[in-house]
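Here is one such tokenized protein:
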Amino acid sequence: MARACCRMAAAPAAALLLLLVAAASAIRVDVVRISSSSSAPPQPPSPPAFREAPAFRNGDECPPRGSPDGHVDVAMTLDANYLRGTMAAVFSILQHTACPENVAFHFLAAAADPDSDSDPDPLAAIRATFPYLDPSVHRFDPSRVRGRISRSVRHALDQPLNYARIYLADTLPAVVRRVIYLDSDVVVVDDVRKLWSVDLGERHVVAAPEYCHANFTKYFTDAFWSDRELRAAFRDRRPCYFNTGVMVMDVARWRRGGYTRRVEEWMAVQKRKRIYHLGSLPPFLLVLAGDIRPVDHRWNQHGLGGDNVEGRCRSLHPGPISLLHWSGKGKPWLRLDSRKPCTVDYLWAPYDLYKAAATALEE
């Protein structure tokens, strides 16, 4: 495991969960009130305050930092609305890998609006919390996808950054040939190098856990399934559901195969004839379902955020766990702050670097 100064002592998962359940009543939401009588002009919002993370160092068995051997590229979007989740995800990756200095983080951020200074800078918060990291930031132009987005069942799924994963190969530098893409609502509780080392074989572009027991037909509308020409997209495949929030992507193969264009073509069909309801996921399924390299289910314990409408609590699926994923409407930081957490949210809490949450737990 990685070495870290001031590192938290390890504890059995069950004992940790019981401790956090007992502390849940102490969690509070701090509210800052600004006097309406003040004549001073309104100030732009400040990014949330986070504790500085320990400086994780490589174990003795790791290749030298900067060596191509053992190097891992991880890509995530950087969104002020999900910053607290991003912090926890990065923290969990660094804490559980033996070679944290060999992990390179690539953040996809929306291009800044030159006429607005009202949004807090999430990159500044990342650098302050992890001062020893040297993350790469790649600007994603929302206008590239905005005209292609169709309204889905949840507003958050309609945001341009939710579609940035489609453009990874166009956004990342050419030197990046393979990348792990992760959503901001995950925590990794195993060495990310194991996921990185998955064998994509001679032709696969994406590797991810797939779920062939899921009802695949529900991801598309009756208008899709009743159209013989459209449903023929799956004619020579046995399509299975997979979640695009955890993927290993061969970026070079994605570029060569023109997969961005292929996904965009299905988004264009959706604009003409509504064939799905769930944001960026269905066009991925249309292009890749049944043609990915399966990964052990332990690498995406997904659905912990509940469904996309109400976000009701869900329990863990049986089996070993390497990655916890709060896909769905409910996010653990929001449920903890509202004092209405689900049991699984206490598994996320130890990675929360938000200062207000830490103070409440200490009290």
Residues 5-38 have pLDDT under 50 and may be disordered. The chain has one domain: 48-303.
